[in-house]
Amino acid sequence: QNRDGLYISATALLGQGKLKEALAVLEGVPPGDTPPDLGRTAAAALLRLGKAAEAEQAYRALLVKNPQDALSLAALGAMHLGRNQPAEALKLFEQAKAIQPVNPGVRQGIATAQARLGHLPEAIKELEEIGVKPPKSTPIFYRVAASLFCYSNEIQVSGPDTSGEVEFVLI
Asked: Is the torsion defined by CA of 127, 129, 132, 136 positive or negative?
């Protein structure tokens, strides 16, 4: 098969959640220069299979071939966000932004990393630049589900600069 056909087949299988099948299709790519789209698709499948180290290695191999691959930079940024490493994620997203300044996924990644670092004004500004308007007001009360109630000795917070604020609940 030609590379375009393999790419279409693999992405369709990925979309159906058939990760191993997608990787098997991609292994059928003839040796030589693998197009970046095929490499990113393989890396995404590896990541979804829980093989994060292999996925990261695949994205980094693509960047060795083409350091201007904004999508691989953004994918690595997202992986770092998933590991709660917002400073590293921010560096990668900023590199991707320098290449693709209007990519909304990249800009959202920057905003997320900024927010996790406690830089909320910068995060809001980043979102405003891509057309996301801030809320006119912030509600005082939020509806929550019982599954969100926590009575643990420890809590999870979104970053090192948390206020430790605890919300009251009316039952």
From this structure: positive
